[in-house]
Amino acid sequence: MANTVIQLKFSEGTATPASLNVAEPAYSNNSNKLFIGLAGNQVIAIGGKYFTDLVDAATDANTNSTIVKRDASGMFSATAVKASLFGNANTSTILQTSRLIGVSGDIVTNTVSFNGSTDANLNVTLSATGVTAGTYGGSTNAVVIVVDSKGRITSASNVATSSVLNIAGDSGTDAVSLSTDTITFVGGDGITTTAYSANSNVRFDVDNTIVRTSGGTISGDLAITGNLVVSGNTVTQDVETLIVEDSLIQLAANNAADAIDIGLFGQFVVTGNTKYTALFRDASDSGKYKLLTDGTEKPLAANTVNVSAFSTGTLVANITGGTVSGLTAAIAIADGGTNQTSFTNGIVAFNGTSLATLANTGTAGTFANASHVPVITTDAYGRVSAVSNTAIAIDTAAITSGTLPIARGGTNQTSYTTGAMLQFNGTSIASLANSSYTLTGGLAAANTITSLTVDSYGRVTAATGEAIAIAASQITSGTLGVTRGGTGVGSFTANSVLLSGTTSTSAVVSLNSSTEGHVLQVSSAGVPVFGFLNGGSF
């Protein structure tokens, strides 16, 4: 065992094991850390390349993200020390290098040399923006000013204002004096105007001759080039002819669930009574399409059709495809039907008005055999309507001469010897005389017959036996299986370990390893394998 390799539990992809047993070690090649388990499956890092790399990289130089190491003089370099410092600076009375302090930007100042030994004073003067000092604006001028990003006015000027306002309409223009003229808003066809001096507003009102939000009537043609959106609940089209260019009309566009009926209905009058007809999809009846007529109730309430208030309509059409089911009446013979609504198991025939199942004749059964002949009666359809068995009877007195030959199932013999074996001698079945050999006693269970004498009739006339003995040299082929006490294989690898197979009757297998230090282990699948001791992976 001097060269045995023992491997810890490890992982190439997981940075930290989820849990470890107490004192169980593990190493992650992902995080380069060595872990050990505590009580309660806790995991802590105790070392590894991650930490040794940090120690090896320690330096007294000013290097980011490294451990600080003092040099031979006990010092180290740093850009800054983030800490509270206490005590006095015992080696500094002034700044090592004097610095000029000044202010730049939108102000002008002098510069002062400062080294920490005396106070410094800056004289600041605000920079000029270039705007000429003065008064801007007035009754005839408007002020134009420019402001920079810091809120300072960098430019100011006067712009003369005009006393004339130019106005224009759909047709015509005018110049209006702001001091003497009055602008009047004049209404047109269907439009009136009202001025309100209290709040300086002008209101435009329209009458019912034009379209407006509260309604109106259009006596002439109306052409709409865009889309027409109607948000009300009812659209009434009192027209004689409706022309629609679209080939498909969508109904129930806002139907969020299968809860309303979808289709068309119309109105007609019969002998002074208003009736309704409808073609629709019935949401309450698995979505079946229905054609109804003579309705006494207008189908508007809750977007549903009261089927009970209608009768079934008549449809004249050629129907192809689909499934015919749920008919209230049978399809007539003239329409290609059977004029029946149901059948029983049996033969179907036309009875003059419909296809019907013929009643059973009651003759089911097995008739005729080697000793009986049948008597059969048939009906008009060719079916067996009655049948009976008549036994075949031949009185022995009717056989008065001859012997039944072999060819007719007989023996061609008239008598036999009592207790004798029968044999066919070429012409008849005759008695065979007993042989003269008799075996005294029986053969032993472990013996086998080694000599057997049989006569021309196949009868044993002599037999001898001896004990069964098979030498190993007589087994020249095959391999003795486990169920027969063997191993199931013909050879083994030298210096190997013998193991049972994958099942209780599988052949014995040999397992070996030529690597020094290997030990026999059991894999995670429960299979014995040779290998170095391995803590597994996480």
What would you say about this model in short?
With 538 residues, this protein is mostly beta strands. The protein is 1% helix and 30% strand. Among the domains are: 148-217, no CATH class; 250-337, no CATH class.
Task: Looking at this protein, list some descriptive labels.
four-stranded mixed sheet; four-stranded antiparallel sheet; flat; about 30% strand; about 550 residues; 1 helix; mainly beta
Architecture overview:
The protein is mainly β and 538 residues long. Among the domains are: 148-217, no CATH class; 250-337, no CATH class. It contains 1 helix and 32 strands. A 4-stranded mixed beta sheet has the order 2-3-4-5. The protein is flat and about 170 Å long. The mean pLDDT is 81.
Low-confidence stretches: none
The helix/strand class is mainly beta
Q: What is the number of helical segments per DSSP (H or I, 4+ residues)?
A: 1
**Mean residue pLDDT:** 81
Note the topology.
Blueprint lengths: L5 E2 L1 E3 L13 E4 L4 E6 L3 E6 L1 H8 L42 E3 L5 E3 L2 E3 L9 E3 L14 E7 L5 E8 L3 E5 L4 E5 L13 E6 L4 E6 L55 E9 L2 E10 L5 E8 L15 E2 L35 E3 L4 E3 L14 E7 L5 E8 L29 E4 L4 E4 L14 E8 L5 E8 L29 E3 L9 E3 L7 E4 L5 E4 L1 E2 L4
Parallel strand pairs: 1-32, 2-3
Antiparallel strand pairs: 3-4, 4-5, 6-8, 7-9, 10-11, 12-13, 14-15, 16-17, 17-18, 18-19, 20-21, 22-23, 24-25, 26-27, 28-29, 30-31
